[in-house]
Design goal:
Layout: H1 17-31, H2 42-52, E1 61-63, H3 67-76, E2 81-83, H4 86-91, E3 103-104, H5 112-119, H6 123-129, E4 139-142, H7 146-157, E5 165-168, H8 176-190, E6 194-197, H9 204-215
Parallel strand pairs: 2-3, 2-4, 4-5, 5-6
Antiparallel strand pairs: 1-6
Helix pairs in contact: 1-2, 2-9, 5-6, 6-7, 7-8
């Protein structure tokens, strides 16, 4: 079979991949107020804006001052990334991980359905209980389910192993804003580095974008 031919060009657009990348980040920096973002988290904010197309995201972005140091240090020491959703895990650019870190989502574990029924909660939340001792020193990334973030915080209140950092950006209309407020309150009270976006916005792409920026300083 002969290779496909490019269709006739009918639109005026940039189609050089590297140029698109460079121009995108330049546009973000020109149009986004990064003054309230911690200096070492500027690239995290830029990449999150890039992943969402929303320059006003920084108005609701809250990054603990110790987040980047704690999360990047954990990854450089070989810590795993624990994700609430397969989409978050799939969005991690493995080439950016400093130690070929494990990226784990357990929502497909066969124990999860029965555990969710017995707990009376969602499968996303039940899967968090299966992280167990892996939580110790891990980087947690919750980008889908508010119930997973609430469940994590309840485990931590109950003495579960402490992660190095929590990226909590669940999306939705029920519980999302409240779960992120709870994360910020817990993080501030217990000196747990965290990143969140207040309000209903969030999602897997946003969370994975933050992870990719934290994993490697290069933009």
């Amino acid at each position: 079979m002969p290779p496909p031919a490019r269709p006739p060009r009918r639109y005026d657009y940039i189609d050089d991949g590297p140029a698109i990348y460079v121009d995108s980040f330049a546009t973000i920096r020109a149009e986004t107020d990064l003054s309230r973002v911690p200096a070492d988290a500027e690239k995290v904010a830029v990449r999150m804006v890039h992943g969402t197309g929303q320059t006003d995201l920084v108005d609701e972005l809250v990054i603990h001052p110790g987040l980047v140091t704690a999360a990047r240090g954990a990854l450089e020491a070989g810590a795993p990334i624990l994700a609430d959703a397969n989409m978050v895990a799939s969005g991690v650019t493995r080439a950016r991980l400093p130690r070929d870190n494990e990226v784990l989502c357990l929502i497909g574990d066969p124990l999860v359905p029965e555990l969710a029924r017995s707990f009376g909660t969602t499968r996303s939340a039940a899967a968090v209980s299966l992280w167990g001792d892996r939580l110790a020193g891990a980087v947690v990334a919750i980008g889908n389910a508010p119930t997973a973030l609430f469940h994590l915080l309840e485990l931590l209140h109950d003495g579960a192993p402490r992660p190095a950092a929590v990226i909590g950006c669940p999306v939705g209309f029920i519980g999302a804003a409240e779960s992120k407020q709870a994360l910020a309150a817990f993080g501030d009270a217990h000196a747990l580095p965290y990143l969140t976006v207040h309000g209903r916005r969030g999602g897997s792409a946003m969370t994975a974008s933050a992870l990719n920026a934290i994993a490697q300083d290069a933009e």
